[in-house]
Specification:
This protein is α+β, with helices and mostly antiparallel strands. It is built from eleven helices and ten strands. The strands form two sheets. The chain has a seven-stranded antiparallel beta sheet. Strands 8-9-10 form a three-stranded antiparallel beta sheet. It is globular, with a radius of gyration of 21 Å.
Amino acid sequence: MAETAHPDPRPTKRKPSFPISPDLRGYLRRYKRERDLPITYDRLRAFHEVIPLTDEAGKPTLWDTVIYDALEMPALNQALKEVYALLRVDGDLSVVSHLYVDRVDFCTFGNSTPFRIRIVNAYNDNQDYFYVKQADASRVYGLELEHLLSPNRLNFITHGTTLVEEHVAGIPGDIFIAKWLGRPDPKPIRVAKELVKFNERCFIRLLGDMRAYNFVCVITPDFEESQIRIRAMDFDQQSYDGRKKFYLPQFFKENSALVSFCAKHMRPETARQYQREEQTLILQRAALASERLGLLLHDMAGDAIAPMPKVHLLRQELAEHYHRSDYLRCESMGALIRQNLESIRRDIGRPVVPELLPE
């Protein structure tokens, strides 16, 4: 019988926030990720009132709408529009003059306690969002690795202790599991294929805690049948935990219904094919961005973004998983990611997530 997907039973404590190091800051400046911003996270914290935000059904959400002093609002709204312009059009204010800030929401859940800003087009009421968060080196590494090694591009900006991120659109994973599994479109095999690929992407670049509410599902109609992609939307747990299973989405109980559904529609041979496809694509992306990725992993290798006991525990588990003693010389999370890339380059006979597959 295939092993039931479940997380390690030990509780996960909230990860501390790590400051952006001088080396990482230099990398961000080089690639225009570090920019002067007219707003900071601390400035947004100076709200006077909160109003609980409910969903369309009237149920409370994890967000509160925040209210600022009336005298502060004009300058604050203009500053937020300028941030949006930097994020979307490299600061060209001439094309965003018709936009306005409709709402600022605040969430106390999670490590980054983010602000979510809703921007609305005055001509057609089209909405967009972006987030202002406390800058955390782990999260910045996660965002940049997603940009370089996944099929998804990400826009974000740092400024001192402030991080600005674009919105990742899609159906939240928990809602997809509750309302979309079993529908004829997208086809079950395409859902299963994408889960295998997503599982592999997270594992190789050591992105942890991909429970259903931390990723979204993007469905794209095709000329015959819809395609699906699973995208991470939370990068707080990049390369921090010492447990191998923490980097495999299949093991979280929140994802068990999705894993069971996919296992019913996936043969082991097909899973191996899809896993190898994703490994090949990751290597191609790494080759195309070799200089940039090399600089990032160099800075990451010198950055203490995880306690050394966690690094040592993970390197031992990865050495056993890939059957390579080279891992045992690694002294950082950045070095472990580099070894993961080397492992798939060598194509050593790694088992293909057998827990996900029927016998």
